[in-house]
Every structure is written in structure tokens, then in C-alpha cells.
Design a protein that fits this description.
about 120 residues, 7-stranded mixed β-sheet, 4-stranded antiparallel β-sheet, 11 strands
Length: about 120
């Protein structure tokens, strides 16, 4: 069964950190781009980061320098290290095969930044 399972979300104060994980199964992660998409009710979905098969990673401007995406193909796992979080980072984070127009989505993990 092809699936993605995220974990690591939670409630954190402004300036705090979280690390999200996404475990892939049923397919070989090495052959796919994969990204983190954030959804907030009433707003368009936002691609936070995308890791391509060529090893490059892109980020939306608002998270550059604070969020870092990495992947461990041997473990079929991708990570999103989130530092210096602010309220604009609040949302449900989905791991998506193929990034913004991807075909496989995880169930999502909630990130809430609040004092």
C-alpha cells in the first residue's frame, strides 16, 4: 500500500522549534520528488518546501533560513526541521509525493504556534 505518514506536530511558542517526519511506504522514495504542503482554513495551500530527485530543495520565501527539509532515502523518510517559528507557520502540514501537484498525501500533522 502506497502511503505517507507524518508525525512531529504540536503546540509551540513563538521562537520555538519542531521537527516533522514523514515515512514513506509502498514505493521507492529515491525516485520521487517530495514536499511539505501547509493548509490553513480559508487560505490557499502553500508549498513550504520541495525536495527534488536531483538533490535540490526549494523553499517558499517566508520560511527560508528557518525551515530545513532533508531526506533519508535509505530510511524512506523525509524531515522538516522548523526553527524560530512564528504564528504564520500555523497550519496542517502534509507530506506529498510529487510536491504541489502530487498524487499521494499523508494524513497531515497539526502545527500550532501560539503563546
Amino acid at each position: 500500500q502506497v502511503q505517507l505518514v507524518e508525525s512531529g506536530g504540536g503546540l509551540v511558542q513563538p521562537g520555538g522549534s519542531l521537527r516533522l517526519s514523514c515515512v514513506a511506504s509502498g514505493f521507492t522514495l529515491y525516485y520521487y520528488s517530495i514536499g511539505w504542503i501547509r493548509r490553513v482554513p480559508g487560505k490557499e495551500r502553500k508549498e513550504v518546501s520541495c525536495s527534488s530527485v536531483d538533490g535540490s530543495t526549494s523553499y517558499t520565501n517566508s520560511v527560508k533560513g528557518r525551515l530545513t527539509m532533508s531526506r533519508d532515502n535509505a530510511k524512506s523518510t523525509v524531515y522538516l526541521q522548523m526553527n524560530n517559528l512564528n504564528s504564520e507557520d500555523t497550519g496542517i502540514y502534509y507530506c506529498v509525493r510529487g510536491c504541489f501537484y502530487g498524487d499521494i498525501w499523508g494524513q497531515g500533522t497539526q502545527v500550532t504556534v501560539a503563546s
